[in-house]
Amino acid sequence: MTTLIEFFSGLLDGCALVALALSAGGIAHGLVVLRALGARSIPERVATEHSIGIMIVAAAVVAGSRMAQLAMKPWALAGDTGDLAIEPFLHTDVFQAGMASVGLAACLSLTAFWLRKDVTQHGRWLVVILALAMFMVNEAWLSHAASRLDGSGLLMVVTTVHMLGAVVWAGGISHLLLFRLKGWRDPDASLQWPEAVGRFSALGIACMALIVASGLFLAWHYVRDWRGLIGTGYGNMLAVKLGLFAMIVLLAALNLLATERWRRGGDAASLRQRVPVYVEVEVILASAVLFTAAALASFPPAIDTPRDAATPAEMWGMFSPKTPRLAGPEHVWIEAPELTDLRSGEIGMKEDIRWDRFNHNASGVLLLTIAGLALLDRTGRVVLARHWPLLFVGFSILIVIFANPDEWPLGPLGFVKSASNTEVVQHWMAALVMLGLGVFEWRARCVAPVGTKLVFVFPILCIVGGIVLLTHSHQVLELRREFLIQSTHVAMGFLGIIAGCSRWLELRLPGPQDRIAGHAMVLSLVLVALILLFYVTPE
Amino acid sequence: MVSCILVLLFLVGTCAEVEAHAILVGSDPMHGAILDESPPRVLFRFNAALEHSVTRVNLLDVNKAQTPLRTVDSSIDRVAVALPWLSPGVYTVVYKVLARDGHVTEGFIRFTIRGQ
To answer: How far is CA A444 from CA A233, A453, B51, in A?
Structure first.
């Protein structure tokens, strides 16, 4: 019950984070990009009011999410007999900071509503900024830094700065994209696109400076050394976050170059054709980074688990080339401590882990075949190769049947019991993503007419699939073994996101960049296939 | 479409917060310990500050009988609970704590008391 409630609480936390980004980003977009205080024209005011309208709703969503999280907490804390600890919970710092968060978010929504009535008033903007500042300061008491035993005060400050930089940037670029999308229907707004991108660049650089400076401090405090970065779950997720952030910086640099070119020569072609596509991918990557940040919170900091950090040799053992195990698994049942019944102490049984290796290695063969056919299809010489997406359907069936042999449909546990296991559900979600990948991409390539929107399903599902892999949860017990398994899934999740973004760029960019992006997608698929092919389950 | 992607990404992404943040970094007796006699208490030490007013600790014996245990001592990251006298057998002590960051952690330690 606790796990399920914490799952929904995490879901609400994500909703609150998105909404907070849209709130903070709305202020930044209104003041820096739209320059609402000096807005003279009607379209400028309308665009600002539209932005503030999103902010009103977003801040209300933050308040609602935080309230729901608080309401769920006594159930998560309840004992097996169902007795709720409501009264003691009311006296905790968690409840008090949570209630303050609800009130301040509601206050932010109301002040934004007041601001929308006249967006040119300095005083109204100041009140809204004050409301946001108070909310952000209060958030420090709900962050992980609040529970640290040493130096929590400084950590809370730096965490808040880091969070502020992230939500202003992610929300700001989301508002920029919404401005562009709205601009397609509003010729007046569309005319301001190059200017809007130029103004956002300055804000983006400032936010990134905040994110990097505070991020380095937090990484030093929570990870400290290279072994912590490479050999622990926390460090691994941090590395993924850095990788995604590096791609955002690369795209942002391209935006900046296009902006500078426009400023010098007035050539806005690149700003109008390529930059909107870069911004779309930046929004996708920003959401992936925020997700990774949420995932990071689910791991104990590397500095707390130095004895459980994997060695470089152990890491190499997971990824190094080796003969794949493609023979059928042996039906041997072994004791599984992770299946221990907490109440009775009975130790569960599950299939030999060699099944697990067979499952991954066989998937590797299948995915390598898919990538090979996709490459062949790009040459245009083999007509049948265009049906390569259909192999993803077989991939999804393989996942459902073999991923959890002790659960439904192969194992003794029924469907309902299996559905309560988070890891099993995540495997099913991955299978569903694979099924979608296959069916939609095959229809887009072989059935649907040219120009169909179906082509966007593949990159979207690649990105979602990558995120499912990044959230692939394992038990906290046996940290080193679980980390070694997780490291391969995290690498595949990261490559899945790269594959999705590459395909998105291939579809949206003009030539010749589209072909480069297409090759990057196939390369990502090949790398995922190789990880699966050489996967070995640690003993 | 962009809105749909964002919603989907965030809904899936937040699955990661299923696990809680506070982890048990030590206990006395240790998990898996084999003891000659019944210990007077169990001490848990975590990596994070706790909200003690909502801490719950229960003792389970092999017959699945459950006994709530009373907190006798606590500091920012530690909880000590008193144990009744235990006869030889295998015992599981299940804890549920709330960290200051709002995450609930559930876990257990198991130890064995062997007969003289």
So the answer is: 38, 8, 54
